[in-house]
Each structure stands twice: as structure tokens, then as C-alpha cells.
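Hi there,

I know you've been waiting on this one. I reran it after we fixed the sequence typo, so this is the corrected version. Both the input and the resulting structure follow.
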Amino acid sequence: MSVVKANNRFNFNFKITELPLGAYSEMDGHEKLQKILEKTFIDLKKGKNVEKELFQHIQEYPTVPILLNRLSSYYQLKENYSKSKEINLKTIEQFPDYVFARISLAYDYFMEGDFDAMLTSLGNELAINALFPNKKEFHVDEVVSYYKTVALYLNEEETNGIAFKLIEDMIERFPNHYETLYQTEQKMMSINMDRFIEGKKQSTKVNGEFIQTIPASTTKPTFENDIINELYRFDFSLPQHTLREIVNLPKDSLERDLIKVLNSGISLYNHLTEEDVSYEETNFIIHALFIAAENKLKGIYPELLAILKGGDEFTSFYFIEELIRIQWLVFYKLYEDNIDQLFTLLKERNIDTITKMIIDDAIEQLFYHHPEHQQSIILAYKDLAQYFINHQDEPTLKDTEFIASLACTMRDISLNDLDATIKELYDNNLVAIFHAGKYKNLIQSERTIEDRLRSIPDIYQMYQDELIVPENPFLKPNFNLFNELKDDFNYSEPFEVLPVRTEPKIGRNDSCPCGSGKKYKKCCLKD
């Protein structure tokens, strides 16, 4: 099956006209025909039963394909897609250059879920001028109707957002058709939301569970180095001179103190979650991890593992969603000369999904920054995938959302070496489709090394960067650039009803739509 690559742009490099479409002034009785077309259009819009009337008009005007198109639209409104398909196939046979019959037939296949047939109807090249090579020009209504149907197909194929890029491109090119294009965009969003919710239901993830491995306490420990107490007072606004002084402490005493800090994360957890504590008072664990990583203090490994196995609510409390983008640096620096241990961590039971994704991010960056380890990392990924296949019945290990992320990483670093391994994960139903997409689309996706490679700042630069990190653009209101358009809706043929179900915006503190019972910010917003 032909799929347009995500980085392609559709080219409208053919003649497009806006002259009146479907003029029959040369026919006898054309005024009567025009009234029939206007009346049937309005009756269809009102949902009236026009089946018998249309059959009579088709017999009276057998050379007017728009009447057949009206009949197909009637059956589509009644959700009788087999009858609509029958009419469209008959129309194509009689009028092979009638564009709207092909579009309407493709929509029938879309509603039946037959996407291979839909592609055949649209043409493998997904280009209207390739589908109708003998036509010298196309009406703008034909172009818009064809490509919005192409967008529906591409959205089903999940080709990395190109469906929405196509709609955006058409809105820019054909602003008078904004309303119908917006409806198609809303339909795709509704489909994707349903797909996301259903995918969430079918996927599995490991949440982990907090276990009080250190006796509960309401006070922080006593430290050998008194300055460590500053880690409990600041977020990333920790003064640079204080951070530098801590990083440069004698390594033995620093390591012992940081172990106490990590253990206090477990001992203080219940107390902190019950108290109204400030954000600054919960950053001590992340401070300790970054400082330990900067000094490569491997003696914290056991305590780090206990933190990683605290469960998703525990890690969400200490490692808030805003930090996910930088947490990989902890594992990158701490395990830079011990990469095998990172793969061992990924085989641990009861480590939650997000934490494993962060560890995998670190491995990917180690792959790019250390070419000397690339072959061993590829082999380790093959071994890890086989490990998940062999233990797929273990609920504390089976995590299709993480494995989906893993498949994406393997695709990025070396498709040639890991394609068969990725396919095996898919064949064993271990990849959450809503996260990674279908196998064929994943392997056809493209990301440049510039998209993937990240810099490795020292701890001082990182803390400074975190103080000026811009507001997350995805949390800002999405103002519609076309809300000032005053053009009336262009009711052109074919009359195609695309049911629109708008989804309410999900607030960060609302219940997550996946049904987990958690707040959105602590569940799917992190994905």
C-alpha cells in the first residue's frame, strides 16, 4: 500500500477554476433541471426522503451525474453505505471522469472501514490529477472534496500528522472552504480521541506501588555536611554558589549524605503528601540525583533503584511532569560507563512506565554520543525485546506503552538492524498502537539526527536553563487564525454529511479521559 511520507507537502500544481460547476444551460429544459437540483439539495439538507423523487429525475435526465450523486448522498445520510457504493460504482461506469463519484465511493469505503479499497478509489498516488490524467483543470470544489477525503484516509493510516498538515494547507489555500475543512478536521480529532481512549483500554502499563522500605518519618535526617539542608529549601533557583559548594564536597561524605537524602524521600513521602508543602520542598530528591550523577557517585545505585520502584504516584510527586524532559540526564551521566546496567534496570519489575521511558531516553542519547558502544547497544535492545516477549504474561513487567516507546527508539537508532525485532514485538501484540502507530507506519516514519540528538549540559548550565525554560506552548490557548472569516459556507456538491462531535477541552486537573481515575496531568498528559 502506498503511503505518503510525513515530510511531504501536497502540490496543487494543476489548474484550478472557480467558475460555476455543473452548468447545464445547453440542455433542453435546463431551468427545470436547475430547480430540481436546488430543491433536492435543500431537501437532502433537511433530511427529507427523496429516494423515489431522485429515481424519477435520474430516468428523466440520464446524462446528469449529479443526480446520481444526490442519490448516493441520500443513502449516506441513511448510513446505507452498501447502496451508496452501488450507486457510485454505477456512476463511475457511466461517467468515468465524474470526480465526485470517486470521492463519494472512497467515503463509502471509509465508513465501512475498508481502507485498502478507499485507497484504490482515491488512487495510489493520492493526487487528483494523477487519478484523472485526462482532465485539464479541476474545480475548487472537486479539489477540496477530494483532498479532505484523502486527509480522512491518511488519518486512518496514522501517518505522523500529515492529515492535519494537509487540512491546514488547504485552509490556507482555500479560505472560502474553511467551514467544511474545519468539519473534517473535527471529525479526525473525534476519531483520534476515540482511538486514543480505546487504545488506552487495550494497552497495559506498569504503575508500580509505593512500599515503605524506610521507616516513616516527619523530619529530614542529620547530615555530615550541613549545607545539604539547602536542598530541601529550593527548586532550581538553588543559588549557584551553593550548588557549586555541594558538588565540590568530599566525595565520600557527599555520597553518604545524598544516600540519606534519597532515603528521606521514602521516609517523608506520606508526611509530605498529607501536608500542604510548597513545590520547593519536594525537589530534594531530584537535586540529589543530579548532583550524584554529576559526580558519578555509583554508591547510590541501591537507593536509586528503591526510588525507581516507588510507583507512578510516588515518582509523579517528586518528579513532576515539567522535569521529564531533563531527567534522562541523571541516567546518562550516572551510567555513562556502565550502559549494561541501564538495560538491567529496564528488566526490573514494578518500575512504572514513565520512569522506564526516561531510562530509554538516556540509552538513546548514549547511542548517539558514544559511537564506540553502538553495536553493543543494538545487541542489548535485541536481548531486551526478547526478554519482554519471553515474559509477556507477567503483569509486573508487561508494559505495552513502554514497549511502544522502545519500538520507536529502536526505529530511530538503527532500523536496518532492529526492523525484525520491532516486527516481532508487534506480532506478539506488545506494542500499544495508539502510542507508536501501526508497524508499517512506524518503520516508514522519518526523523533526522537533529530531531533526536540532545546536548549534555553540566549541572550548572542545566540549573540556569531550568530557570528560564519557556512556558509549555501546548498548554496555551489555541486561538483560531480564521475566526474572523465572514464568508458563507460554500454548499457545493457533493452534499456530504460529516458528523461532527466536538470534544470538551481537558483541564490539567480534570479526570483523565482514559478512565484511570487519575487527574489528567498525572496520567495521559505525561505521555
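Quick highlight: Residues 127 and 400 are 36 Å apart (CA to CA).

Best,
R. S.
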